[in-house]
What we know:
By secondary structure, this protein is mainly α. The chain is built from 16 helices and no strands. It is found in: Cell membrane. One of its GO terms (biological process) is siderophore-iron import into cell.
Amino acid sequence: MKTLQSLNTGQRVNMIERLRIPFTLTKTQIFVLLGLFLLSTYSLFIGQHVSGSLSDLLSNLLSGTLFDPLQSVVIWQWRAPRICAAIFIGGALGVSGAIFQSLVKNPLGSPDITGFNVGAFTGVLLTMAFIGVHFWLVVIGAIGGGLFAAMLVYLFAYRDGMSGFRLIIVGIAVSAMLSAFNMWLSLSVSLETAMTAALWSVGSLNGITWAKLIPISLFLGILLVFSAMLVTRMKLLEMGDDLAAALGVSVHKTRLLLMLIGVCLTAAPTAITGPIAFISLAAPQIAKRLNLSKQNSKKCSLFSAALVGAFLLVTADYLAQYALPETKFPVGLVTISLGGVYLVYLISNESKN
């Protein structure tokens, strides 16, 4: 067997090239994309204040009347930014979960479990309490809080290397500590700030506007591009630090860079919606079990995780709005309810392996 040192340049390049897959959609990915498109379209055009049925919508389109002024406001100013936000945020959370699960090599290694989203919410609370509810300051506070939580977890979990299991345990402890601090801070601020924070803490897509969505979407888009550029290095890290280093990867630098991107992909959505659980935990695992990745059914590509994350959040938001007549729930309440069931299944399944 050849040692790592005996790998020549040609062998290294060949091994790296095998990890680079041409971007072609699988049948399952096309099916999920179609489901996402149909559900988004249905959520956009059907429901209260809009045409009562699909046949009515088709009749309006065929007659050329389209929508009256009220329907146009409901569709393009209220629903469209909400659905687009669900797609972008769901995709970002899915990619963030895939990055952290790859780094710690454990399906429980997502921002939900390791406390990074709780840290982002801590940053939001501190900004609201001491500065005020200013959009970009809240975004900066969320990112700062998420990075602070990640730094704490990394410092306490690092012992001559990074153990995925140790990082998860430390992350749970840091999450509990920050949750207690968030509760104390909520009780210490003014009633108005506490009520705003309480609504924020549930996680909701209510009040999303184009003015908020467009800059955040651009920021998330840049992060997703950077994450796509690091896919090859991430896959090499999955093969082990020694092999990745032998193939020319700066292990610690790459890991920190991926953690930075993953935290920002969690913190930025938290700044505008509040913490939305379950998506980053479940999306990569569901994508893997659906065999969405063309290269290896045991691994999950970032695109597959983003696709499933977007579909999950759009579905959860639809259920939050229309599952019970005359009752609308915050989308975070739906995701955390489903996430609790999924987490029990995931832990029991891991214990059997």
